[in-house]
Design a protein that fits this description.
The complex is a heterodimer of chains A (111) and B (110). Chain A is mainly β and 111 residues long. Chain A is built from no helices and eleven strands. The chains are: A mainly beta (111), B mainly beta (110).
Chain lengths: 111, 110
């Protein structure tokens, strides 16, 4: 009965590779988000989708591309991975107004 | 940039109330005060939010001053499982853009 799930939980990859992180929510929410938490523990929003439309796009390298196939899914694809992309990535969902529910996070390590 | 100011850390004895302060002197009329917490290695967890009035739910109480320039999150009976980083965040509640600051590291001790 997991509300917001992410796969994989851990991802170790080499520089230059392309990888994807998947997120699914079963709460019936219409808005989904991606956040990045770096080594200093600061959480920053990256993207937000409402009803499959991009509504928040913070200053994120265009190597990061979110894709929302439907309202319950928001995937994050990262091209040409760099060392600085190492972080924990959290997916979240909510109704367009209201509290956000976060997933367990995906720890990405780029070597 | 976070628009709230919180103490970096505080300790609390198990079973006692924990009062977490937050200053938000530049809050706008349409901004809500949200509180989230992040237990080590987990995703953030919503606690409570409010606009003007004090709010209470099963987890905590939120006290907002009349001028709305500060607020206090109250955990009525802290347990060891309440050890976490607590974030006070302002949001217009539209499209839910949350800007997390450094938060307050709360350690509940036996």
């Amino acid at each position: 009965d997991t509300a917001v799930s992410q796969t994989p939980k851990y991802l170790v990859t080499q520089m230059g590779n392309d990888k994807s992180i998947k997120c699914e929510q079963n709460l019936g929410h219409d808005t989904m988000y991606w956040y990045k938490q770096d080594s200093k523990k600061f959480l920053k929003i990256m993207f937000s989708y409402n009803n499959k439309e991009l509504i928040i796009n913070e200053t994120v390298p265009n190597r990061f591309s979110p894709k929302s196939p439907d309202k319950a899914h928001l995937n994050l694809h990262i091209n040409s991975l760099e060392l600085g992309d190492s972080a924990v990535y959290f997916c979240a969902s909510s109704f367009s107004t209201g509290e956000q529910y976060f997933g367990p996070g995906t720890r990405l390590t780029v070597t | 940039d976070a628009k709230t100011t919180q103490p970096p850390s505080m300790d609390c004895a198990e079973g006692r109330a924990a009062n977490l302060p937050c200053n938000h002197s530049t809050i706008s009329g349409n901004e809500y005060v949200y509180w989230y917490r992040q237990i080590h290695s987990q995703g953030p967890q919503y606690i409570i939010h409010g606009l003007k009035n004090n709010e209470t739910n099963e987890m905590a109480s939120l006290i907002i001053t009349e001028d709305r320039k500060s607020s206090t999150l109250i955990l009525p009976h802290a347990t060891l499982r309440d050890t976490a980083v607590y974030y006070c965040i302002l949001s217009t509640d539209s499209w839910g853009k949350l800007q997390f600051g450094a938060g307050t590291q709360v350690v509940v001790t036996p």
